[in-house]
Each structure stands twice: as structure tokens, then as C-alpha cells.
Specification:
Order of helices and strands: HHEHHEHHHEHEEEE
CATH architecture of the largest domain: Alpha-Beta Complex
CATH topology of the largest domain: Ribonuclease Rh, Chain A
Distance between the termini: 20 Å
CATH superfamily of the largest domain: Ribonuclease T2-like
Shape: globular
């Protein structure tokens, strides 16, 4: 699978940069208020001890207020940076097979334009019951890149609502993760030639593992459906990750049998 990579700035890097900028601002704010309070204190010195004590209390209150604001705003970003990244599942669809099996897909862009592979989504493990949703908010530049692996708008929105909206990621970061995983993954050439093949499951997995150092058979789930004459046709490949590294799949379908067909649409 070959796609142009986006600049891969992680959510952690984004938040750390944001936090550093905000911290700098708050420190300047504290300094400014301290100076102003000191001036105020000087003005009140001539008025006696009570006025001077009042100014001192005001200085402390200003500094404490700024520190409280800093702790409230910065703590979530720090906590998010220390959070353990969970399991991820990249779901890849074999477009020619699914376009052939399901006539209702005939007008989808991947079917009309002859895509060999598309991404159906990236499951981050947060579930889909958080009550949030809506359409993904992508810039025109990012949309052009995402289109190379997820050309159908309905599929993109479904993936975001089901897998991304409940996560801490904004939609731009969620789809950046998809593009990064898809662009780094190496797949056997039989998936992208436009021809149909009958392949051995053992051989296919061996190729996949050899092309992707760190991957194991436990981190791949091959999903097939019966086509004409009850032949088993590969329709989906799920690649499992632990954070950004290959991992083991938490649950598998693995129903392709010892041999299956890769449909190239010809």
C-alpha cells in the first residue's frame, strides 16, 4: 500500500508544545502581576501598616490565582502525555471482492475507480457509546491524502463516529494515525495487481510477516466470505498493534481456511 505520508506529529507532541507555550504565558502573567502588585504596595506604603499588609495579601492572591489556573489547564495535557497507549486494529478491505459480493457498493468511489485496497477504520479501543459523533473535520490538504486510502466519505464518517469520536484524538489526528499505519504497512504484491489468485494461507501470512519486521501471525486476522461456488474469498485484513508497534489481536475471526482467493476484479 503506497500513500503520501502526512507530517507525523503525534497528539503527545502537540499537547506538550501547547503546554509549554501556555506555561510560558502563565509565568509571564505571574511576573507581570507581581510587578504591578509591587508598585501597588509601594503606593500604599506611605498610608501605613494596614494598607501595606493589604497590598501584600493582594500580591499573594494574584500569584496563587495564576498558579491554580496553570495547574488546572496543564494537568490534563500532562496526564494525556503519560497515558498508556492501548491496542489498535487497522481494518483493511479488499475492494474488488466486496464490490463484487455486494451490488449495493457499486456506486462507492472505490468500486467505480478500481481501488485494490481501502481502509475501513482504525479501532483505538475506546468503544462507540460516548454520545459524540458528527462528520470528520479535515483540511482540504489532509482530505486529499486520506482519500488515497479511504476514498468514500460515508466510510470515513462511519469510521470516525464508531472508532474515533470516543477517543481523545481530534479527527485530524485520528485520520493522521490511519494514514501513518497504512503507509508504513507492507502488503504482498498479489493484493495490488488487479488479477485474481488462489493462495495458501500459510504462504500469505509468511510473506506478510517477512515484509513487516516485528509482526507475528497472532497480530493478523484474515476474514473471508463465500462467493460463487462457495469459494472462500479474502475480504478483510485486520492488523493489530500495541501502541505504534505490531501486537496481538484481542479477538479474531480467522475464517479463511487453508486456501483462499484474492480477487483482483478481473
Amino acid at each position: 500500500m503506497s500513500v503520501s505520508e502526512l507530517n507525523d506529529n503525534s497528539l503527545l507532541s502537540y499537547r506538550q508544545a501547547y503546554s509549554a507555550t501556555l506555561k510560558s504565558f502563565l509565568l509571564r502573567l505571574i511576573s507581570r502581576h507581581s510587578v504591578e502588585a509591587a508598585v501597588l504596595s509601594g503606593r500604599y506604603q506611605a498610608s501605613g501598616g494596614m494598607a501595606q499588609r493589604t497590598a501584600s495579601v493582594m500580591i499573594k492572591a494574584m500569584v496563587m490565582l495564576a498558579l491554580v489556573v496553570a495547574s488546572i489547564v496543564l494537568t490534563p495535557a500532562h496526564a494525556a502525555g503519560n497515558a498508556k497507549v492501548g491496542q489498535r486494529i487497522l481494518m483493511i478491505e479488499m475492494a474488488p471482492a466486496l464490490c463484487s459480493i455486494y451490488p449495493s457498493r457499486a456506486k462507492m468511489r472505490q468500486c467505480l475507480e478500481g481501488y485494490s485496497l481501502t481502509v475501513a477504520g482504525l479501532d483505538l479501543g475506546y468503544g462507540d457509546r460516548c454520545g459524540r459523533g458528527g462528520s470528520a473535520d479535515l483540511t482540504p490538504l489532509q482530505l486529499r491524502v486520506v482519500n488515497k486510502v479511504m476514498p468514500d466519505a460515508t466510510v470515513r464518517d462511519q469510521a470516525w463516529r464508531r472508532y474515533g469520536a470516543c477517543s481523545p484524538l481530534r479527527s485530524s489526528f485520528y485520520f493522521r494515525q490511519i494514514v501513518t499505519h497504512a503507509s508504513e504497512l507492507k502488503l504482498p504484491r498479489e493484493l495490488n495487481t488487479g488479477n485474481s489468485y488462489t493462495v495458501s494461507k500459510a504462504r500469505f501470512l509468511s510473506q506478510l510477516i517477512r515484509l513487516n519486521p516485528g509482526m507475528t501471525a497472532a497480530g493478523v486476522d484474515l476474514i473471508c466470505q463465500d462467493a460463487k461456488r462457495r469459494q472462500s474469498v479474502l475480504t478483510e485484513i485486520h492488523i493489530c498493534y500495541q501502541g505504534n508497534n505490531f501486537g496481538s489481536c484481542p479477538a479474531v475471526v480467522d475464517n479463511c481456511g487453508s486456501n483462499f482467493i484474492i480477487s483482483g476484479g478481473k
